[in-house]
Amino acid sequence: MGFEGVEIFENDFLVHDLKPKEIKKIVSDYGLQISLFQPFRDFEGMPEPYRSRAFDRAKKKFDIMNELGAKTILVCSNTSNLAVGGIDRAADDFNELGEIAKNQNIFIGYEALAWGKYISDHRDAWEIVRRTNHNNVGIILDSFHTLSRDVNLDSIASIPKEKIFIVQIADAPKYNMDLLFWSRHFRNMPGQGDLNVLGFMQNLYNTGYDNWISLEIFNDQFRKDNRDVIAKDGYRSLINLTKKNEIVERTKIEKIEFLEFSVKKEDLDIIQALFNSLGFVKVGHHKTKNIILYVFGNVKFIINAEIASNEKNGKFNPYAFGLVVDNVQSTLKRCEALKVKNVKNYYLNNEFKMNLIEDNGQYIFLIDNNNNNKNWQSDFNFIDQKNQNLNLEFDHIAISVEHSTLLSSVLFYKSLFECKKTSNTDIIDPSGITKSHVIENKSKTFKIVINSAENDETLTGQLRPKKYISNIQHIALRTDDIFELSKQIQDLGLETLKISDNYYDDIDAKFGLETSILEKIKKNNILYDEDNEGYFFQIYTTLINNSFFFEFVQRNHGYEGYGANNAIFRISAQKKLIHGSRT
Amino acid sequence: MGFEGVEIFENDFLVHDLKPKEIKKIVSDYGLQISLFQPFRDFEGMPEPYRSRAFDRAKKKFDIMNELGAKTILVCSNTSNLAVGGIDRAADDFNELGEIAKNQNIFIGYEALAWGKYISDHRDAWEIVRRTNHNNVGIILDSFHTLSRDVNLDSIASIPKEKIFIVQIADAPKYNMDLLFWSRHFRNMPGQGDLNVLGFMQNLYNTGYDNWISLEIFNDQFRKDNRDVIAKDGYRSLINLTKKNEIVERTKIEKIEFLEFSVKKEDLDIIQALFNSLGFVKVGHHKTKNIILYVFGNVKFIINAEIASNEKNGKFNPYAFGLVVDNVQSTLKRCEALKVKNVKNYYLNNEFKMNLIEDNGQYIFLIDNNNNNKNWQSDFNFIDQKNQNLNLEFDHIAISVEHSTLLSSVLFYKSLFECKKTSNTDIIDPSGITKSHVIENKSKTFKIVINSAENDETLTGQLRPKKYISNIQHIALRTDDIFELSKQIQDLGLETLKISDNYYDDIDAKFGLETSILEKIKKNNILYDEDNEGYFFQIYTTLINNSFFFEFVQRNHGYEGYGANNAIFRISAQKKLIHGSRT
Predict the structure, then answer these.
(1) Which ranges of B417-514 does DSSP label H, i.e. alpha helix?
(2) What is the pLDDT of residues B32-80, one digit of tens each?
(3) How many Cα neighbours within 13 Å face the side chain of A98?
(4) Hey, is the C-beta of B432 within 8 angstroms of any chain A C-beta?
């Protein structure tokens, strides 16, 4: 998977039947080095007779390490109630252990556990190592232990790089809980959580450090997950942490250019009828293939009847989108570094060969900003079209992924593109929790919502692409005049999602809207929300193919959210469509 | 399921298509009352214009409540950043709202959220209610909000019972984390967690309170679980909280009397050979049925070849155990109150009719302590037997349950018997976490370990009874001389679980055992552990039928644990048996 070394966690070794030398050979046969043997607990500051026993224990472990071919051992700060404090006492213990280690050709790295009894801060661990003043004793830094306690990161830069024996890296969602519990259950890959791992790395690189960067992740979910996905994400997270200029930078996204739907030839009429009812207009046919281009304002939909032979497709589904990026070639280079799949020669025999990438089942076409944006349209013959009096923009796309690939999907977007996770919401579906992460670029011209449900009884779970090629769950299109748009789509016969009267009574009580506005949104099944800045309108279509839906939104006075407060009402209404209303 | 009322959580109502009056009718048709409408947020201490809007909002909700037939509304303490503090200001707001409520025939219950901005303690909420001094305004207590902040429980007894409008009850595992996060994700049924709910109830009953006791549980797991199990557990947890003498008390367990195995007739030879190799001796045959009694010291095993026709059985499996209790009739009465299944007439045509109960797939025979314990043996003809020079006792039984029934199983034992959950360990299986809860009676003559795995890749998950009637995973038998016992079973040809050499190197480093002892335990695959009190020996058998195993243990100098430190070694060795060792 691209890794160069492996830490041997002691318990994994202990349960193994093979002798240390045999394990050494296996590791070496895989082309790996053993970067660390760990952990060695409850060493420093022990009173007798525990002190002598700890030294005996260490000697025995050093013997085994030499058989294993492991040069460095992690000693974590003491958590034992028997331990006695004192920087100098600890330094004396490490100096004595350093002499033993020297004789056995072992290096000792001391790490401050965030919940250590006396030493819980890397600055104190460093002071002990500094006073120990022994070539075989250094410090081990772990981003979680430092970031979870908000230890000042500048302090890292003052440690000489040769005294940093190894650096362990982990991220985590920002929870306010017992540090040990948080660490044992919720760590995740750098970039998947909320900690300032990049800031930590920047300070580390300022020391000139160029030794191991190691992932140390404890996560309940990861234990159950697909190990290939976990390994891929771990590797990517390390790529993201490399020094500037080592690897081509993340790509800037300009905008979503189009959304492509796959369709079976016999269902071409149905999807075209749907697009017509959404207010879209047919503007072109592909010159050589059964591909049709529809447009509404700045939103382009492509219907592709060439790939629907794929068994995984339903009647028709959105399965890919096109992104305008600042440089396709450098994007592809970064894809290669990140092991993102480059689907070659997808549009065979086309004049304009678009690049297609794929990850976790998500297909993305890349379009170069430097060329004329319209180049890809050179494959199409254009036809006359009637004028549309409303504009429309892509607002955001929501995808629905398996719970086990939620963080993987977040990491994919953050690794490849210049974008950030801007929010993280739990949506309470009556059958379980749906987690919703929002990824946005800085200019907010690219916004993707990644939803995952813990179980399949939730709506998100039900819409998860078990039989569809795509994981696109809904497409939100932005208008400046939701009421005019609502009128148009009703005239065109589009069915919108019926929202309960009780919802509007509550909106009335909550926001005190003018009666005329309230009546209007109720009549048109428009949902309403406010944030500190502005207000928001939403209309949902009914479920299409029981797998995806459209949303029209209007953002007023800088509303920045996604109507998360309304999600339960949307979900409830959609569930009724699937199951029928229980009365 | 036995409940008398239902709280209407506002969002559940809002997403519903039916009008309030129609919902009122449904609730009433189910024979239920609406005990509460909730929550009403961010009311007290708001500055204008929010204050007026909050009053308007309340009036609208009161109208809806009257249509719904809900008399009481929960107003939770304000969490808004806009709110202004002050007991008297809040009391004034409530007095004004109380007048409005009075006119609309509504009662207002004020609850201190543990994370309220100014009011987070029920003592402060009560002071506001006291100063409000309005008949339509009272307090609502919630055990979680009080217990999570360790608020002195005596303070409850000073509230006049008529001012307590409703009491909500929840338990939770004792985690140290953000209160809101803890409350939203980890609450569970009273008796399933670690909070002092019984102490809370005792103080509540001291006020003379006799109004609603309501379960308010937010739990991620429960959302996914079987609703019948959740409802049953909720009901049981309320039965457990009833006042003294309302329901027959929990039963005292004296000991485990026997373990019963089901077997297919054609496999009788195999199971008897197994028991012989464990050192057990055949002592009797059932007078009329194909049932055989084996004994080793005080441990009795029953082989039942009469029920193996059940498709769910494998070749042979432990599926039930017999408990000596202080009173079978009162146990059965409590079973009835708790809705525990009483399997009637299980031993048809026997002289001694044993009572059998079942819950969550666990079968338990009940044997009266008042009668002669041996009565059930009157069904057997006894045969001559050779002497055994070692004694043996039941130490504990471990069952393996689905993750979703872990808490349900804990609650079952705690509800029916006088016993406690004494520990709660996470065992790190390489494929996921196995949760292990220990239930013990006071005298420790009954000990049961309930294991559940989050996924089926873990050993606990693999041993889960998908095709077996029983969930008994292992049976631990206690000896006073593990070395003599080890010799005997080896002479009898019993295969024990091979433990890795690396394990013993670590035991050596950790505990510094005498070389002779170390050699002896290593040679005999005996695992070792220490706690603050004493030390512990364990021998495991190999897996039997890929579904269960035996363990021999010796407890020295008051060791009280279960060798949890060794669990990963046992699991790893067993996994190798299932999958073959990967080298």
Answers:
(1) 459-462, 482-491, 501-511
(2) 999 999 999 999 999 999 999 999 999 999 999 999 999 999 999 999 9
(3) 20
(4) yes
Give pLDDT tens digits for B543-564.
898 789 999 999 999 999 999 8
Closest alpha carbon within chain A to B567: A15
Could you tell me how many CB contacts below 8 A there are between chain A and chain B? 139
Using the Cβ of B80 and the Cβ atoms of chain A, whether some distance falls under 8 Å is answered with no
Q: Are residues B121 and B23 located together in one domain of the fold?
A: yes
- Partners of A57 on chain B (C-beta within 8 Å) are 509-510
B224/A454 touch (CB, cutoff 8 Å), yes or no: yes
In this prediction, the answer to ipTM > 0.90 reads no
Residues B492 and B569 in one domain: yes
**CB count, 10 Å around CB of A325?**
25
At residue A19, the pLDDT reads 93
Q: Which residue of B has its CA nearest to A502?
A: B14
What percentage of residues in chain A have a pLDDT greater than 70?
95
Q: Do A433 and B220 touch (CB under 8 A)?
A: yes
CATH, residue B92: 3.20.20.150
A430 and A353 within one domain = no
What CATH number should be reported for the domain holding residue A489? 3.10.180.10
Q: What is the pLDDT of residue A373?
A: 53
Residues B126-151, buried b or exposed e (16+ Cβ, 10 A)?
Answer: bbbbeebebebbbbbbbbbbbbbeeb
Beta-ladder partners of B382? B284
Is A14's CB within 8 Å of B569's CB? yes
Which residue is it, tokens 């919401």?
A425
Torsion of CA A99, A101, A107, A109, to 10 degrees: -80
Provide the domain limits for residue A53: 5-240
How many domains does chain B fold into? Answer: 3
Residue A314 predicted with pLDDT over 70? no
Evaluate whether residue A245 is within a structural domain: no
Out of A456-465, A494-503, B174-183, B428-437, pick the least confident: A456-465
Chain A CB contacts of B178 below 8 Å? 175-177
Distance between CA B84 and CA B86 in Å, rounded?
A: 7
Q: Touching check for A487 and chain B: CB below 8 Å?
A: no
- CB contacts of B46 in chain A (<8 Å) are none
Do both B44 and B94 map to the same domain? Answer: yes
SS3 per residue for A225-268: CCHHHHHHHHHHHHHHCCCCCCCCCCECEEEEEEEEEEECHHHH
A558 and A420 share one domain: yes
**Alpha-carbon distances, residue B248 vs A35, B47, B417 (angstroms):** 62, 53, 11
Cβ neighbour number for residue A283 with a 10 Å cutoff: 18
Q: Are residues A437 and A351 in the same domain?
A: no
pLDDT for B343-373, tens place per residue?
Answer: 875 665 566 778 899 998 889 999 998 765 5
Residue with tokens 């007991």: B87
Q: Would you state the pLDDT for residue B465?
A: 55
Which of B361, B382, B403 is where one domain is finished? B382
Residue B428 lies in a domain: yes
Write down the pLDDT at residue A372. 59
Closest CA to B165 of B207, B224, B220: B207
pLDDT of residue A374: 56
Q: Which residue has the higher pLDDT, A557 or A574?
A: A557
Same domain, A49 and A197: yes
Least confident of A151-165, A225-239, B308-322, B391-405: B308-322
Confirm whether B245 is domain-assigned.
no
Chain A from 494 to 533: CB within 8 A of any B CB: 498, 500-503, 505-506, 508-510, 512
* Among A182, A205, A240, residue at a domain's last position: A240
Asked if the Cβ–Cβ distance from A18 to B583 is below 8 Å, we say yes
In a domain, A218, yes or no: yes
- Residues B401, B312 share a domain: no
Band of residue A583 on the pLDDT scale cut at 50, 70, 90: very low
